[in-house]
What we know:
The protein is mainly alpha-helical. The chain folds into 2 domains: about 1-30 and about 270-300; about 50-265, CATH 1.20.1330.10. The chain has helices spanning about 5-30, 45-95, 105-125, 180-185, 195-210, 215-265, 270-305; strands at about 125-130, 130, 145, 155, 165, 175, 185-190, 195. The strands form 4 sheets. Strands 1-2 form a two-stranded antiparallel ribbon. Strands 3-4 form a two-stranded antiparallel ribbon. Strand 1 and strand 2 form a beta hairpin. The protein is rod-shaped and about 115 Å long.
Amino acid sequence: MRITLNMQTSEAMLSVNDQQEKITQLSQQIASGVTLSAPSDDPYVWAQTMNINQGLNQYNSLLSNINFATGWGQATESSLSQLSDLVTQAKQIAISATSAMETNQTGALAGEVSGVLQQAVNLANSQYGNQYIFGGTNTGSAPFSIDESTGAVTYNGNPDYIQVKTSTSDGADNSTTVNLTGDDVFTYTSGGSSNNLLQTIWGLGQAIQNNDTTTISDDLTSLSDAFDHINTESAINGSTLSALTNQQSAINVIQTNQKSTLSGLEDTDIATATTKLTQAQTAYQAALQVTGMLDNLNLASLLTSTSV
């Protein structure tokens, strides 16, 4: 096939345009610091970056759930710690009451128990943000109330658990139970019977007022069992918090690695890009010179053919 001057000129112009595009692309990469601006830049690498970004978004969602669960667990830990202290205080009052025989002493001690009871009810209605932590999944209203004249305790919560997704492990339970219900914390076993801590504290106050040393002694034993029960529930909550911390750390490591991989795919190697830009500019200038020479030849050929 005969290669004409027009064909050579067209090829030279294509080279000029190609080098121009390279210069524009490399300049953008250097200015933005990113090698990919569209799928057409490198479809395979673009697909890789999309997959990594999708994974990072998923891990961000898990971290948000973990932060929520951790905050809830910490609020629970604080309430259980305070509740444990209150039970210890109630036990000390019971011990004092067994030797307090004078009316004015028992009256004062009964008043102390009343104060402990009120604090215990407040803790039973503890909140994390605007959600009640011991109401099961019914977090919008106070779970506990007590009739101080009869000691009847009403639980307005439910036995259900709040669960959030905190991992992506295949073939495993990906959810973590966030809460302890009111029944978990305030219902305990003593002497083979099921008891409610709030009612036990109320009963202690009544026994002190009545100078009922036998009931006071029984309540002291019951409160010791309640104390052990709360510590057990606290350990369960602590185990959950520890697992959440481990999951958070593992996700942070994965995210760091993925971000590093993403950076390697997306970020511009300034030194390499600058070298390529210089080469493209040189090639562009050379292509312009060739195009100019071919244009002159075409013009000369045209003039010659016209003169003939």
